[in-house]
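User: What would this chain look like folded?
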Amino acid sequence: MRHGNKRNHLGRKKAHVESLLSNLASSLILKKRINTTVAKAKALKSYVEPIITKSKADNTHSRRVVFSYLQNKEAVTTLFRDVAVKVADRKGGYTRIIKTGVRLGDKAEMCLLELVDFNELYTAGKASGAGEKKAKTTRRSRSSAKKKEATTETNTAETKSE
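Assistant: Here's the prediction, encoded as structure tokens.
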């Protein structure tokens, strides 16, 4: 029975799971998005999000704690220099899992795991609208817009003919 066992061991021993998650987390931080299986992505999400939260406080203790998880100096410096700055105002949910289908060889469910604030497609609208607020527009029916266009066209046509 698995009473109280919340972790997915991914069919590996404890040391292998720890090194796998450490390597995946380092790759995610350095590359900002990785392709992996859904089971590994879910395990990695619960592994890397507390690390990213820890990186918000840039002091020696938090750097050492994060290094004990990642075991990669480049990943630690990238995390504290680039990632922590972008996620400073976010309260959680730093990663996104996008399912991409199945792997051809063994039909394993594959997905794309990415850091949320580093996807330009989703953050493009927020970056431009963050400083300025849009002018509030009211919803009008199309028929009134057509009538306005028709009246302005006739008015301009009359002024040109005179």
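DSSP finds six helices and three strands in the chain. If you want, I can go into more detail on any region.
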